[in-house]
Amino acid sequence: MSRYCIWFVTTDDSVMRRAEVAINGVIHSHQVLEEIEAQLAGECGLSQVMIVDWKRFETPEQDGGRLVRVA
User: Fold this and answer.
1) CATH of domain 1-56
2) Which of 12, 21, 26, 71 is the most buried (most CB within 10 A)?
């Protein structure tokens, strides 16, 4: 399971929003992004969202055991 921080905008306003998502596998194609966009829109009660950036959270094992806090 891969965890991502997703930044997105909506057609309803120009405010940049952020969400944390977990998916099986990795973001590797536009189809995966479109599926995430559709799910985010439905869960947030928005007509449409557009992902503008994403960052993968690294697990402590992949990061040499260091813990990183995100504010």
Assistant:
1) 3.10.20
2) 21
